[in-house]
Design brief:
alpha+beta, Arc Repressor Mutant, subunit A, Double Stranded RNA Binding Domain, 2 domains, three-stranded antiparallel sheet, 6 helices
């Protein structure tokens, strides 16, 4: 997957800007890397090099959000993409759009449901469970537990079964 001219390199950077923009929400480097590698868009080293160059050029920023680092396209990145989008072949854009439609729902769910815990003291942990939808906080639940094992188990079950647990909590509260 070697590229031999500057136009191809620029096209790959534009393609990355397009992908980040089309996600429609801040995406982690891990999510972007997973998407790019699973769909054989470019190799890992090219991806990381191009991301670094896009950040250096201020087309993408790496921001912190809920203890995660996420990539966000800047206004300069959007302007550049809008100006040069015709340099990305239409067939490539259509292909990326199809791939993103399939993958986007999973990434949205991952971004909206969080579970974390912190150790407060010996035998005292605080579990934090959250659900957000379109930047609106739906659930923010904090539980005190007595062991690391309990904290991990609660986080795991929350992430695996959020819709059912949420419905059970609501039903118990309104009955």
């Amino acid at each position: 997957m070697f590229t031999d001219n500057s136009q191809q390199l620029a096209r790959f950077k534009l393609l990355l800007l397009y992908i980040i923009h089309r996600f429609g929400f801040p995406v982690s480097n891990t999510q972007l890397t997973q998407f790019v590698l699973e769909n054989d868009i470019m190799d890992y080293f090219m991806l990381q090099q191009f991301l670094s160059e896009l950040e250096d050029s201020k087309f993408v920023t790496n921001e912190s959000s809920d203890k995660k680092h996420v990539l966000v396209i800047t206004d300069a990145g959007k302007n550049t993409l809008n100006y040069f989008i015709n340099h990305i072949p239409k067939s490539k854009i259509e292909h990326i759009d199809q791939l993103l439609n399939v993958q986007k729902e999973k990434f949205i769910l991952d971004a909206q449901v969080t579970a974390d815990y912190v150790k407060l003291k010996d035998n005292e942990y605080l579990v934090k469970l959250k659900v957000t939808e379109n930047d609106l906080l739906i659930v923010n639940l904090e539980l005190g537990v007595t062991s690391n094992k309990q904290a991990k188990q609660i986080c795991k079950r929350w992430l695996e079964n959020t819709p059912n647990l949420y419905n059970q909590i609501i039903n118990m509260l309104v009955e």
